[in-house]
């Protein structure tokens, strides 16, 4: 079936309050004129898989599509041998439950208190969706009279408990003799909470919208597809449904248009909407498919850099935002929101059937670099901070997240030259594009290695290991696949040093060394991730490591990261983390529920 392109609607008469739309920044990018070098290099149509279990398509920029170009990597390695469990909302038993049955399933308050404390203390998405002081009031009201609480609010509480139970399984000490039974207990608890969350959504008729519905759906989505990762197809479908439901509820239009929305509610709506936009973009890139949201229909402003203690339900006029030199729980959301203007455009460019001209690629890259250098708060930029030991592990992870997003965007923008290099005519341009791809991919692998080392026992990020494992995988998958493709065909990429260049371009030996270390990391992760197994297999082929091929993605592979090879030098990051100085309790332990939220607001 051939795709048909419709004319782009006219740009809006006035620019968005928060940022210029993609169409306004580059009005011709949607229908670029084909240049001579493009005529010789038509757009790669992507990869279509036809199987009895289903049909799937990914665009050429997706890491799986890139891996198909690795010679010797069999199709059955790239294709999942078994389908993931899928969304409980789509495939769960979803037996209809009554309000009484749902309330009867709520654990005793001490159990709920502990799980909710863990959730707020550990889950970075929650401050984007929930105002802490308001939630605490509602929480106390619920325990006073559960039967009077709306089923939608109870539905919000259940996925929070589900996520907390899942997080608890990540932190169980495997050396504990009771570890297996304790983990099984939490997994049983998690499945029960997961079922009740969906039952609450159905009982609340979630497709009609209403209070707490979007927050609950986002919690369900992130619980299933951020924590459990493999099988993001349902996540992509679910975020599309969430986005369209949010548009049905008017979240894509700024609250200032509507006098009936209070300042408090308007600010929370902005936070929720920006969260949805980011999830839409992330899951679309992960799937290798177009995003659902486009700038043409949106004028919602970015949220303010405020703590929850700065405003409440009785606020009549919002206070000015805190300076961006001051970290708040929503500052990372704001920072990544600014990257969306460029990364979203790159996503659109990569899914357009007409590839952009090289000049347009340069323009988009200039926008991306400008956002990275000027619009990201310094406290969240890796290269501008000294990274003292007083910085929290969470802040370190957030800085890495911003940086890897930037480098991933540059790979997505320039990778076309890497894939089609022999067929193109403008080799000087393509050589520069290949340089950018390789530099960006190597930078991401450097972060992968640092994060993996520091998430080992006694490492600085030990207590955040689940974040390191689940948040950065897709960025590293893309970087690894790009370097694999380069190393496989290194002879065809002649990258001579340009005159006057002070830094040497990435060499094959450096790439091989980085990939060798990365291979060991993917091998360790392959016991829990099918995606990691695919990449480990590809690396075995590219590196010529036939001895490891039997383990890649199919058998148990374990090793001690800190003793299998020398510690990784981290001088390029401005600091070297020494594991021995950070005991496992370095990250704050579980705190009492009544202290979790307000300590963040002071």
From TrEMBL:
Keywords, sorted A to Z: Nucleus
Protein name: Xylanolytic transcriptional activator regulatory domain-containing protein
Region (Disordered): 1-51, 304-327
Cell compartments where the protein resides: Nucleus
CDD domains documented for this protein: fungal_TF_MHR
Domain Xylanolytic transcriptional activator regulatory: 235-309
GO biological process, one term: DNA-templated transcription
Recorded GO CC terms: nucleus
Gene Ontology terms, MF aspect: DNA binding; zinc ion binding
Native source species: Knufia fluminis
Organism ancestry: Eukaryota, Fungi, Dikarya, Ascomycota, Pezizomycotina
Source taxon at top rank: Eukaryota
